[in-house]
Amino acid sequence: MIYDYIVVGSGISGISSAKILSEKKKKVKILEAKPYTGGLVHCEISSGNLYHKVGGHVFNSKNEDVLAWFWKYFDKENEFIPAKRNAQIWMNNSFFGYPLENFLYKLPEDILKKVINDILALSSQKEKPPMHYDNFEQFLKGNFGETLYELYFHPYNQKIWQFDLSQVPMEWLKGKLPMPNYRDIILQNILQKEESDMVHSSFYYPKRGGSQFIIDRLAEGLDINCNEPVTEISYENDVWTLNKKWKTKNIVYTGDVRNLRKISQPHFAYLDKLFDTIEKLPSHGTSNLLCECDKTDLSWLYIPEKKFKTHRIIYTGNFSPYNNSNNNGDRISCTVEFSGEQDLKTMTEEIKKLPGNLKALDSNKEKNSYIIHRKNTQTSISQLQKELNNKNFILLGRFAEWEYYNMDKAIEKALSYFQPM
Ligand SMILES: Cc1cc2nc3c(=O)[nH]c(=O)nc-3n(C[C@H](O)[C@H](O)[C@H](O)COP(=O)(O)OP(=O)(O)OC[C@H]3O[C@@H](n4cnc5c(N)ncnc54)[C@H](O)[C@@H]3O)c2cc1C
After folding, report:
1. How much distance in Å is there from the Cα of 410 to the middle of ligand 1?
2. CA 212 to CA 77: how far, in whole Å?
3. What predicted TM-score, i.e. pTM, was given to this entire model?
4. Among candidates 40, 334, 42, 30, which has minimal Cα distance to 212?
5. Which of these three, 147, 164, 193, is where a domain ends?
6. Domain check: are 261 and 137 in the same one?
7. What number does the ligand 1 atom closest to the CA of 15 have?
8. Nearest 5°: phi and psi at 163?
9. CA 20 to 30 Å from 89, out of 124, 217, 265, 269?
10. Which residues contact 338 (CB under 8 A, 6 or more apart)?
11. By the 8 A CB rule, do 40 and 398 touch?
């Protein structure tokens, strides 16, 4: 049998691509390396609590097409819970609202004065095009000032990206960064509204099963083989063969683009130079602890200070009561996230220093979760995409396109490829 499409990977990119293609009556198969579906958004139940294995995932989109497609498959009122975004920043043993620039009035007076001086100086500068800067460090300093950069933006972003921010090119960040509006910052600091009163502050979260519920529902009716890592791809007479047994006219590859040369030799040998660059792209992983903590009304807590290794706690227990082993108790579940590889001892020692009486329940490490761009990464990937598209080989998703996608963006990309067909 020759499939119309074989999709490599069952993360949100692979599942939504296969779903859209099956809506078009295409014969589609998904091959997934792991024993389970979902990729980065995979969740399990651990000691009765919902565990987002790679950090908490919530779904949100501003794209009407994505929302219209998504909600066809779910009963918004009965299967989802509207959740409030209530993020805070924990610094110097105190809680600050998020984003920090809207809560400057909570800073100690000496620091506040410096920040105000920076902001006044920046706001009186001539208008700059938003992407005027060469790199992420310059962008943050140029828009928020040196004081906020040193206090918050640098330590927080350095922890997440584990990469010199001056080496992060702006092309990667286009459209992904909030631009500060000095008038709004001043107004917000006078009005002193809490984040939960702001317009962008609510989202929908599955009542049961977290992001795995989304994957499982979209996967209904799809033909998926788990435990099937694609290790060999060959091409003859316009037909692709995967692992010597699965034949297809088209491949949608959502795995790591850096592994492509290895599994597709010798078919892309003519692209060797391009692969030399692509295989060197840097990435790093995440580690996390599923914990139990005191009840709180927070959804996220950002932890910028260098003395902590963690950068964020996500209070998944607040998004749905079914995420907690004890629905009525005074404790909820949460996930403490660390960038990169951290050992269990370091993580369990760290939570003793954090607020909320955290108790570790489970842990996980993911080798690759954050992609890092270098200058010209986008150009190399676009070039590769163009070459592969000619052979009906489509790259799609966070690691295949080397793009910092969220779930909604992955769906948007799948829609843009396959819906017009
Ligand atoms: C800590 C963290 C928090 C996040 N929070 C959010 C959030 O709150 N909201 C949001 O929308 N997004 C969030 N994201 C982003 C989101 O996780 C990704 O956008 C999304 O999961 C990417 O999906 P994907 O299908 O492109 O890739 P993946 O999820 O990586 O899926 C790729 C799949 O392909 C499989 N695969 C790879 N190679 C092969 C092979 N050779 N053969 C067979 N199978 C293969 C993998 O096993 C995997 O299952 C977060 C990401 C991280 C790291």
Report:
1. 9
2. 18
3. 0.94
4. 42
5. 193
6. no
7. 25
8. -150, 140
9. 124
10. 286, 287, 288, 309, 310, 311, 347, 350
11. yes
| Same domain as 6, residue 72 | yes
Q: Is residue 338 part of a domain?
A: no
What is the domain extent for residue 54?
Answer: 2-78+206-282+372-418
**How many Å lie between the centroid of ligand 1 and the Cα of residue 46?**
21
Contact 407, 69 (CB under 8 A): no
For residues 256 and 222, membership in a common domain is answered with: yes
DSSP β-ladder status, 359-371 and 283-294: antiparallel
**Burial, 343: exposed, middle or buried (Cβ in 10 Å; 0-12, 13-18, 19+)?**
exposed
With residue 45 as reference, give the H or E element that holds it: strand 43-46
Task: Report how far apart, in Å, the C-alpha atoms of 174 and of each of 1, 234, 250, 283, 379 are.
Answer: 43, 36, 31, 19, 14
Q: Is residue 239 part of a domain?
A: yes
Residue 199, pLDDT score = 46
CA neighbor of 115 nearest in space, from 100, 96, 131, 95 = 100
CB 27 within 8 A of CB 3: yes
Long-range Cβ contacts of 186-191 (<8 Å, 24+ apart): 186/119, 188/101, 188/102, 189/102, 189/103, 189/104, 189/105
**Do the domain assignments include residue 308?**
no
Residue 18 DSSP symbol = H
Predicted confidence (pLDDT) per residue in 293-342, tens digit = 999 999 999 999 999 999 999 999 999 999 999 767 799 999 999 999 99
Ligand 1 neighbours (beta carbon < 6 A): 8-14, 31-34, 39-41, 54-55, 57-59, 229-230, 254-256, 286, 337, 369, 397-399, 405-408, 410
Tally of domains in the chain? 2
Q: Give domain status of residue 113, yes or no.
A: yes
Rg over alpha carbons for the chain, rounded to the nearest Å, is: 23
pLDDT digits (tens, 9 = 90+) for 256-287: 999 999 999 888 888 999 999 999 999 999 99
What is the Cα–Cα distance from 186 to 193, expressed in whole angstroms? 12
